[in-house]
Amino acid sequence: MYSEKVMDYFMNPRNLGEIENAAGMGKVGNVKCGDIMQIFLDIDENQVIVDAKFKTFGCGAAVATSSIATEMIIGKTIHEAMQITNKSVTEALEGLPPLKIHCSLLAEEAIRAALWDYSQKTGTIIEGLEPPKDEDHDHHHHDHDDDD
Predict the structure, then answer these.
(1) Tens digit of pLDDT for each residue in 2-53?
(2) Which CATH code is given to the segment(s) 4-120?
(3) Which of 120, 49, 56 is nearest to 82 (CA)?
(4) Could you tell me if 126 and 76 are in contact, meaning their C-beta atoms sit under 8 angstroms apart?
(5) In the chain, what are the domain boundaries?
(6) Whether 59 is catalytic
(7) Model pLDDT, residue 134
(8) In this structure, are residues 58 and 99 in contact, taking their beta carbons and an 8 Å threshold?
(9) Active-site hit among 103, 106, 107, 129
(10) What 3 state SS string does 47-97 have?
(11) Whole-model pTM?
C-alpha cells in the first residue's frame, strides 16, 4: 500500500517539532479526513529557509508528506519553495495511494500558508502566493461592517 519511503518518513519523521518565534507558520487542515498539518519556517535575511519543522496530526501519509516537504524546502529561497507542489512531494515519496493524494496537497498548502504568514509579517511579496484557503468554518471572523 505504502512505498518503503513513505513508511520510513512516517516511522522516522524528519524535522518533527516546532520553531519558536518562527518567521512563518502555516496551519492547514482537512476537516473531512481529520488531518491537521502545521509547518514552521525559519527564514534568514536573504529569504532563504534555513530551517523547517512540522507538527502533523493525521494518518501516516500526512506525517510522511509533511516530513519530506520540510526536507525539500530547507536551503531553498522562499521563491524556490513555491515550486514545491503536491506532485513533487508525492514523487519524492515514490508515490502515494490515490486515497492519500490529498495529504500531499495539504503539505503544499501548509508550506504556502507558512510563506504567506512570513510575507504578511515582513511585507515581502512572493510571486504567485495566494492567501490560504480557510476550510475551518467553525470560527470564522466575520467582519460586520454595519455594526458601528
Answers:
(1) 999 999 999 999 999 999 999 999 999 977 778 999 999 999 999 999 999 9
(2) 3.90.1010.10
(3) 49
(4) no
(5) 4-120
(6) no
(7) 64
(8) no
(9) 103
(10) CEEEEEEEEEECCHHHHHHHHHHHHHHCCCEHHHHCCCCHHHHHHHCCCCC
(11) 0.88
Name the grid cell of 27: 496551519
Q: How many CB atoms within 10 Å of residue 47? A: 17
Residue 59 reports pLDDT greater than 60: yes
36: part of which helix (H) or strand (E)? strand 35-43
Assess contact for 40 and 16: CB atoms under 8 A.
no
| CA-wise closest residue to 23 among 138, 95, 123, 93 | 123
Q: Which one is catalytic: 7, 33, 59, 101?
A: 33
Q: List, in sequence order, every residue forming a beta bridge with 38; answer none if it has no partner.
A: 27, 55
* High-pLDDT (> 70) share of the chain, %: 90
Is the backbone of residue 47 left (phi > 0), alpha (psi -120 to 50) or beta?
Answer: left
Q: What share of the chain is helix, strand, coil (3-state, %, to 5)?
A: 40, 20, 40
